[in-house]
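Lab meeting, item 3. Inverse folding demo.
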């Protein structure tokens, strides 16, 4: 089965590709979309992975990526804006371009990796952009699977890097004292869900919320990770209001970076109505197993 992936050089994309090439019964061939030749060079070197350099504003490059594929997995997106990449361009416009290419190429299936809290009517710019991206998929008329995810943990993920950095210190201050509740998802579990979606293919559009099996406060997560690193971490409090004030003032001088909207996202408790692990046919990894993968 041939599938196309955008954001193939992301931590999720790299984990997905590495997992595929390590399987002895791999039946996938992957058109792996990246934004540059340098990113293409970072992909696993394997006969079943074919790199493609794409530009979301160039429909021909997207059509080439999708040519011959049964489905497309759209992984690309951002949480933190930069002068060259905004929520509109990276989350909304890129998704709209991929969907349009899927329509032109008559693909049978679109898989979108979204985020908990996505809502096109949200006053939070990030959540709004993810909701608009979902709308582009649901309004396309193409069968689709939309998977909303929480904090993702796995070697190389942004969440894991931040967690290890904090857990390796004897003392650390975190926003709100880290009292917000997280449901960290093992990136390997997400990739298992993506494979399941690719293999079965929907006849309609389905939306899922997929989170890890155990709720844990951010504070508890840092302490538990510190213990695995042999570090007894003392977690202090950085007031959310002061962080927002600082982000607002910094926003006067530069575009992007940490903003009040980002702070709201990273301090939100991750809650769901129904966990879709059974619906997606996967078995979730215990949090202890996931954390062990992060420790050298």
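The presenter then showed the designed sequence:
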């Amino acid at each position: 089965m041939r599938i196309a992936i955008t954001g193939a050089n992301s931590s999720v994309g790299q984990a997905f590709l590495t997992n595929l090439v390590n399987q002895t019964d791999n039946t996938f061939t992957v058109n792996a979309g990246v934004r540059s030749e340098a990113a293409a060079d970072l992909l696993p070197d394997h006969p079943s992975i074919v790199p493609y350099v794409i530009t979301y504003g160039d429909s021909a490059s997207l059509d080439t990526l999708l040519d011959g594929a049964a489905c497309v997995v759209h992984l690309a997106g951002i949480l933190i804006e930069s002068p060259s990449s905004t929520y509109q361009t990276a989350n909304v416009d890129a998704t709209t371009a991929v969907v349009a290419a899927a329509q032109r190429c008559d693909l049978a299936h679109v898989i979108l990796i979204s985020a908990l809290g996505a809502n096109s009517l949200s006053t939070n710019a990030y959540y709004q952009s993810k909701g608009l991206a979902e709308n582009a998929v649901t309004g396309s008329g193409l069968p689709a699977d939309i998977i909303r995810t929480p904090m993702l943990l796995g070697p190389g993920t942004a969440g894991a890097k931040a967690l290890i950095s904090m857990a390796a210190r004897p003392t650390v201050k975190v926003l709100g004292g880290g009292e917000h509740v997280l449901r960290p998802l093992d990136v390997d579990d997400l990739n298992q869900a993506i494979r399941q979606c690719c293999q079965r293919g929907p006849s309609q559009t389905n939306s899922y919320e997929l989170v890890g099996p155990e709720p844990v406060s951010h504070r508890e997560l840092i302490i538990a990770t510190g213990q695995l690193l042999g570090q007894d971490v003392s977690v202090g409090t950085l007031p959310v209001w002061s962080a927002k004030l600082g982000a607002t003032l910094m926003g006067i001088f530069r575009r992007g970076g940490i903003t009040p909207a980002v702070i709201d996202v990273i301090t939100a408790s991750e809650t769901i109505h129904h966990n879709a692990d059974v619906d997606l046919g996967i078995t979730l990894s215990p949090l202890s197993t996931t954390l062990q993968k992060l420790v050298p």
